[in-house]
Design a protein that fits this description.
The chain is mainly alpha-helical. The chain is built from 3 helices and 3 strands, in the order ααβββα. 73% of the residues lie in helices and 5% in strands.
């Protein structure tokens, strides 16, 4: 049928009864196909769910097994390091013990030396006393020969500290250690 305005072919027009029948048939087909579609979707969903749940359970078990395996490997590595360090420590302790045993066995072969040690210590103390007396005699000789004296100063009186004087050697004043630099600077500038 052509349109009176645009003169294009248009849809055919139906009467109300035919239109009702046509719509009823269309609804029945849609309902039939939708129920069929829903049944297929439900069946596919159930199949997928069973596959998915078993697949997810399998993946979860694999992941759990991998985690426990990693923990076991880490624990094994830690135990191996610990064992290795303990073996090294045991080896050093055994070597130290063997060395001590050898030293003790060697010491048992020598005669007791307590008397020799006491005799040597007495000789050493006599020698140190002799050296001390010789030093004091040398210091006294040096003081007399070079005329080393402390000039000035005052002794401690009534709990107050005394002051130190200047030391002279042969009439020349010895500088204190801090004055050496100052004396050298004065001499170089003069």
């Amino acid at each position: 049928m052509e349109c009176k305005n645009c003169e294009l072919r248009q849809r055919q027009y139906y009467c109300a009864i035919c239109l009702k029948n046509h719509l009823r048939d269309f609804r029945l087909q849609t309902h039939h196909f939708s129920s069929d579609r829903d049944e297929h979707v439900a069946r596919a969903f159930r199949a997928f769910k069973s596959i998915e749940s078993s697949h997810l359970q399998t993946r979860a078990e694999i992941a759990r097994a991998n985690r426990s395996l990693e923990q076991l490997v880490d624990g094994l590595a830690k135990v191996r390091r610990d064992c290795e360090s303990k073996r090294d420590r045991l080896r050093t302790l055994r070597e130290a013990l063997a060395q001590r045993r050898r030293t003790l066995n060697a010491a048992r072969l020598f005669p007791p030396q307590s008397q020799t040690l006491s005799k040597e210590s007495q000789e050493l103390s006599v020698l140190s006393q002799t050296i001390a007396r010789a030093r004091s005699g040398l210091v006294q000789e040096l003081v007399e020969v070079f005329h080393v004296v402390e000039v000035g100063g005052r002794p401690a009186v009534g709990g107050r500290p005394g002051s130190k004087g200047e030391w002279t050697i042969g009439g020349l004043v010895l500088p204190v250690p801090g004055d050496v630099r100052r004396t050298l600077q004065v001499l170089t500038t003069s």
